[in-house]
Amino acid sequence: FMLAACGNSGTTPGTSQTGGSSSATKKYTLALIVGVKGDPFYVTMQKGAQAQADKLGVTLVVDGPTQFKDTLQVPIVDALTAKKVDVIIIAACDKQSLIAPLQRANDQGIKVISVDTFIGDGDYTNGPIKFPLSYIGSDNVQGGNIAGQALIKAIGGKGSIYIQNVTPGISTTDQREQGCKEAITATNGAIKLVGVDYNNDSAAKATQQTAAMLQRISNLSGIFGTNLFSAEGAAQAVKNANKQGQIKIANFDAPEQAIADLRSGVVDLVIAQKPADMGSTAVQYAFDALNGNMSNIKKRVPTGYVVIDKTNVDTPDAQSAIYKS
Ligand code: T6T
Which one, out of 5, 60, 117, 204, has a CA that is 20 to 30 A from the CA of 227? Predict the structure, then answer.
């Protein structure tokens, strides 16, 4: 057996001396590292990435931490770096702590592309961090602003708003909070921000924190949930308190549950991102970079939104924006 195994291995294409042909037939391996496994946003991103990888004939491996946590994501980056994948496409869990591990990957010749979240200040042309080839994701200050303005309108231009957020240091949700705060500031004091809580990406925690806020501010007017789990948890607390319709909710992200809550009047606005487009563009960029087609690659690709409310929820546009799970 041993001899036969040795004999066989000597005849595998990878070890033959045909030289140049091995590079011509090399199948590239792209790694997609999501922010957290199982989140319908990233599941949808993965589907877009996989479809594009199939089209281009490249191998896609997908991994991610079991919680949205930088300390759990760094070892995944290190392991894929050690495996020498060709490209790392990553939704970094933290804008600072992922810089060093990704820099190490880049130093070893692995191409790095940001999807959804960025590292550093996200300006890969003029900012301090320039090595990622591109940042492909929503304009999150704009998204937070859309949410804030819609909420302010829904509550009649006066009253109080509460923000349910994930964890400080995540580029996306930090910027959504900023965008919403800017909309509140623009009301010149007509709207009061009563608080921001951080749920560590746990809907259950968001429900508890929102319940406590509803106790404290009994006439709260509106809530902005800055991501899927924040909004889901906040909506649950409003349902538990039997205050649906009374408290307006702007829901970032578009899983089926958010659409159900929109239809039943618990949620007033659902802001759908385009995760499948993020995934497919990132894979296309990876392929272009590996083939030296750098002129196709833009350093920043804002992917846009579909803003869903009761008036357009049944349109094909809105329906196709709902995340897959
Ligand atoms: O909102 C998305 C993503 O954009 C964000 O970076 C983290 O949370 C989500 O994945 C939704 O759960």
Answer: 60
pLDDT tens figures, 215-224: 999 999 999 9
Which two three-digit tokens encode residue 105?
A: 């990957």
Phi, psi dihedrals of residue 176, rounded to the nearest 5°: -65, -40
Alpha carbon distance 325, 256 (integer Å): 8
- Prediction pTM value: 0.92
What distance in angstroms lies between residue 117's CA and the mean position of ligand 1's atoms? 9
Ramachandran region, residue 302 (left: φ > 0; alpha: ψ -120 to 50; beta: rest):
beta
ipTM: 0.99
Q: Closest Cα to atom 10, ligand 1: which residue?
A: 41
Q: Tell me how crowded residue 169 is: count the other CB atoms within 10 A of its CB.
A: 16
Instruction: Find where tokens 């392991």 sit.
Output: 79
Q: Which residues of 52-83 are buried (b: 16+ CB within 10 A; e: fewer)?
A: bbeebebebebebbeebbbeebbebbeebbee
Separation of alpha carbons 40 and 88, rounded Å: 21
CA 259 – ligand 1 centroid, Å: 17
